[in-house]
Amino acid sequence: MPQTADDMDAVAVRAWCSLALEALGREREAIDAINVYPVADGDTGTNLYLTVESAAAAVEAVFAAHETGTSVPALADVVRAMAHGALIGARGNSGTILAQLLRGMAGVLADGHDADHLRRALTRAAEAARQAVAHPVEGTVLTVATAAAEAAGRTAGDPRPEAVTQAAYEGARTALDATPGQLDVLGRAGVVDAGGRGLVTVLGALVEAVSGGPPARGTWVTPDIAPVTVAADDCAAGGPADGPAFEVIYLLEARDDAVDRLRARLDGLGDSLVVVGGDGLWNVHVHVDDAGAAVEAGVEAGRPYRIRITHFGADRVHPHQSEPAQRGVVVVVPGDGLSGLCTEAGATTVLARPGEPPASGELVDAIRRAHAREVVLLPNDAELRHTAAAAAEQARTEGIRVALIPTRAAVQGIAALAVHEPDRSFDEDVVAMTAAAGATRYAELAVAERQSWTMAGICQAGDILGLIDGDVAVIGEDVPGTARAVLDRMLSAGGELVTLVLGEDVPDSLAEALQEHVREGYLAVDTVVYRGGRQCAPLLIGVE
Which of 55, 320, 514, 537 lies 20 to 30 A from 94 at CA? Predict the structure, then answer.
């Protein structure tokens, strides 16, 4: 959605995210193909795409909250959402650095949106990215970002934002062309830096968002370079043959002083260390031989989550050599307790934390990790139906047969997984799982944040709400009483099995009391209890 803008306003930021996502989608495979540093694992384009996808989704959420006629959100809210989305969705070394670049820009643009603020934003972005990398290396995306900022700075006095963005783009292109001469591994492979190329793509989208047209020199294309395959022993330090064996990434809730100590400890454990973020939330990326020690360091610093550990083995450099399974199941779960339960049942899980729904790229990645010819996808959230549909469609283009069962709650996913039979035909299995999910009514308990109207009447802040099939049906004063009332409503229509999923802070005594309530009031109805771990709702209920 290109536009012409007099300054870098909220609409221009929204357009930038959308255009950058489209551009990276087109160039993802080409960027992956030239990825040789710091590890030749062929995923830089994909990681950048997933990072920007998360940023764009966060921006769209801000605009969705302001869909009231001509209302437009404040620029500060939009750029902060962009930075936060990139931070929580950052993937790989390149994605983590891009998240810090966007965070640096957001910190300046939140205070102003003219050409001068845009110049300073690009400068702050380059500085922040370098500060986040433990040992900056020239010939990488850091070099390209610095060149873009310096070129933008040379437009001082020009009041046109489009002049600033065009200069930054040109400076980045020139620096990118020079990267093979700065980094030996790039020169030997005959390619430019993949992360730098991705940044040029993102800056090209910025030019288009601000000026309403593509960059003056058009989209950058690698000249006369075919996709390359780099052997492990051809990589520079950090490659699979002579570098650490694992890539470890996690989000971390921690204080600044604890993160300073964490940086020092991780720097001693491995290389390619990048720590980005602030204000209590950080994204940590490092390559190590001892993945457990890297995670343990995060535990000592604060609370790590969304932990991803990737082995840089032959299967990483040459993926998909093993024979895929016939069928797999991918399940989105709202808590780590259910993640363990579904993993034990043979499913590949995607963790959805409060306020952090998975992007389509994460679902596609999970479908690939299932490594099966046929995959059943259970999103377990009505809000994820479009995201899941997009992920299924992309996976189908890769030759994977995907069936999307539109489960709207975790208890429906549990019911579907319980009847999964991989020995049945795919169609029969999907029908059985769909029927089991459809026969499961679902409910959850939530705490009202403010006074509001509901289908059950007016609730006050702090009231316990009982939502049945997505609508508020009961307003109560405490969790036990509200849970009993919800169960009575649901079981009045009949049922054979009640599933209770308890949140992290809910005592076992609640489950025992509810089980007793069902036994006394409803003959021949069984109850099963699971621990959901850290999840958004204190209690999830399913009735089959």
Answer: 320
Confidence tier at 491 by pLDDT (50, 70, 90): very high
From 17-31, 231-245, 306-320, 492-506, the region with the lowest mean pLDDT: 231-245
pLDDT tens-digit map of 351-360? 887 667 787 7
Whether the link from the prior residue into 38 is cis, omega within 30° of 0, is yes
d(CA 419, CA 412): 11
pLDDT (mean) for 63-80: 82
Count Cβ neighbours within 10 Å for each residue of 217-228 and write b for 16 or more, e otherwise. eeebebeeeeeb
Q: Tell me how far CA of residue 437 lies from CA of 124, 125, 427, 467, 502, in angstroms.
A: 50, 47, 15, 18, 20
C-alpha pair distances (Å), 418 with each of 39, 328, 407:
40, 14, 14
- The amino acid that residue 513 corresponds to is A
SS (H, E, C) 166-215: HHHHHHHHHHHHHHHHCCHHHHHHCCCCHHHHHHHHHHHHHHHHHHCCCC
Q: Cα 25 to chain center, whole Å?
A: 16
Identify the H or E element spanning 284.
Answer: strand 281-288
Rounded-to-integer distance, Cα 242 and Cα 128, Å: 29
Q: Is the model's pLDDT at 2 over the cut of 60?
A: no
Helix (H) or strand (E) holding 297: helix 291-301
**Which helix (H) or strand (E) is 276 found in, with range?**
strand 270-278
| DSSP letter, residue 352 | -
Q: pTM for the full model?
A: 0.66
Give SS3 for 394: helix
